[in-house]
Amino acid sequence: MATPLGxxxxxxxxxxxxxxxxxxxxxxxxxLIHQLRNVMVLQDENFVSKExxxxxxxxxxxxxxxxxxxxxxxxxxxxxxxxxxxEVEVLxxxxxxxxxxxxxxxxxxxxxxxxxxxxxDQLITKCNGRREACAPHHTYINGLFxxxxxxxxxxxxxxxxxxxxxxxxxxxxxxxRKGLKGPGRPRK
Length: 188
Known about the structure:
Layout: H1 12-46, H2 50-133, H3 135-144, H4 173-176
InterPro entries: SPATA24 (IPR029176)
Protein name: Spermatosis associated 24
Organism: Callithrix jacchus (White-tufted-ear marmoset)
């Protein structure tokens, strides 16, 4: 290293040594300052101010409180949901029972309707048979009242084929009442 201007060479060994040491200290301090500046830059990038930290911390506390409230509400709603699901299950079972009862009743009603329809068909057949048996008498009655047509009921039966037909006077009157027992009732 060169001796600085104005320094003498005599005793320059100790001065040079001191100068070298001083220069090494300054270089190491400059290096340390440079490293500290880099650390400060990193700290500025990675760290927040105390105010920002306190604001974020306060917000976190508020969110935790809101989360706890939401959790309580969720538990209540879950309880309501479980209760409602239980009710739905009970109502579904009750509906199934009522459906089975309805189907049974409907089957019973259909069976009764079928029986009644069969009875009706038998009665129609029976009435038609009696009407055919009484057909000669119709001509006689129509002969007595030629201008009056024979009335027909809504069911399609002639009124004079019904068991309640009574003719009190005229020839053949008593034999028209032959199949009756009591006033207007057929014999069994």
